[in-house]
Automatic annotation (TrEMBL):
It comes from Paracoccus laeviglucosivorans. Keywords: Cell membrane, Membrane, Transmembrane, Transmembrane helix, Transport. It comes from the Bacteria. This is Guanidinium exporter. GO terms for cellular component: plasma membrane. It is found in: Cell membrane.
């Protein structure tokens, strides 16, 4: 169950990052509220996952899901640049997530 919590926490990290961008520096109410609620939920689920998962594994996977997810959302919905170097960087993050998952005892 810890892996499910961690996955949801990572997805919520993508949500809060996107809505933080949309909040225009916390000047728009709805995106600001969504950002804060998603942050709290993401951190709460991360903390629950960390009860059984190793710190390094949980935190690496959580941040990796958020980083790669935000990268994809930025390209898909915000018109951010797609360059070979950015794609290579995202692939390296994904390979690190996979390696971390395979190396853990959980």
């Amino acid at each position: 169950m810890a892996w499910v919590y961690l996955l949801i926490a990572g997805l919520l990290e993508i949500v809060w990052a996107f809505f933080m961008k949309k909040s225009a520096g916390f000047t728009l109410l709805a995106p600001s509220v969504i950002t804060i609620v998603a942050m709290i939920a993401s951190f709460a689920l991360l903390s629950v996952a960390m009860k059984t998962l190793p710190l390094g594994t949980a935190y690496t996977i959580w941040t990796g899901i958020g980083a790669v997810g935000a990268f994809v959302i930025g390209i898909a919905f915000l018109g951010e640049a797609v360059t070979p170097m950015r794609i290579i960087a995202a692939l390296l993050i994904v390979s690190g997530i996979i390696t971390m998952k395979l190396s853990g005892g959980h």
